[in-house]
Automatic annotation (TrEMBL):
InterPro entries: AKR_Detox_Biosynth, NAD(P)_OxRdtase_dom_sf, NADP_OxRdtase_dom
Lineage start: Bacteria, Bacillati, Actinomycetota, Actinomycetes, Mycobacteriales
Entry keywords, A to Z: Oxidoreductase
GO MF annotations in UniProt: oxidoreductase activity
CDD domains membership: AKR_unchar
Protein name listed in UniProt: Predicted oxidoreductases (Related to aryl-alcohol dehydrogenases)
GO cellular component: cytosol
Amino acid sequence: MEAMNPLPSPSVVLGTWSWGSGDVGGDTVFGNHLDTADLKPVVDAAMAAGLTLFDTAPVYAMGASETILGELLADYDRESYQLSTKFTPGIVDQYGDSMEQMLDASLSRLRTDHVDVYWIHNQDDVEHWTPQLIPLVQSGKVRQVGVSNHSLAQIGRVVEILAEGGVPLSAVQNHYSLLFRDSETTGVLDYCHEHGISFWPYMVLEQGALTGAYGVGNPLPEGSGRAETYNPVLPQLTELTAAMARIGEAHGGLSVAEVATAWARGKGTVPIIGVTKTRHIDSQVRAAGLSLTEAENDEIEQLAAATGVEVRGGWEKPLQQPGTGNRALTG
């Protein structure tokens, strides 16, 4: 087995869930309608800025996100960027019930012979799927492996299974934000730090609800999945986002989104931030140098807790076993 390259350690990972249209795509989930032409300036700006790690999945717009990303990166040298995609158990029947077939389809759409990070997308049958990562690493098609939406106990078991094949667990990708801190309260984040495992939080901006761009007078796009989830709770977020805006202003006019990203990065994580416009790239370049003070962290964490808002995706299972203090499901 070829020695694995170190996992890239950028300030952020660029998320592509909202790219493309169709089932579980940008139009249905986010209310976006973005194709290759719309997204080419975004990718070019990212590459020019040195933000070169992209996260996608075959379930995002059922392959359209990967296809767009592969097309837009085709003119760049493969070693100049890094790709992260996933094995999604819930759609494996479309790929002959084979992890490798799903990976091969992703490689074809991404126009590459390998991915830098390959994830098991959710906690569906750890014992069955985890061992199947090992031969993919041995084949060279996968450089590093990670797991997403896994609990602490499941992560520990994944580490044991992978170790039998000489493969380390490189990263964990879970929902984590000011409004949703289960990976912190259940010990996942500490475990990752203690074992040298990179933690990539997704939904750091809660699909736009923590960007300051949306509020009571300017709700998220009607008809989208995120509007249905977040618009009812926007009034509860007003005080929090106002404080984040004030903190951003004190740091040279940074945005609410940049403050949210800096908060997550200050927890020792590598945030996944969805990008659909060139200004999102500029924003992340600015945010890279922002460190919040202890007082600022305390203030926004207290305000976030006071909102009473905790939204869990329909795909997310509790990270604790029943009866161990898991908070109520609100979304």
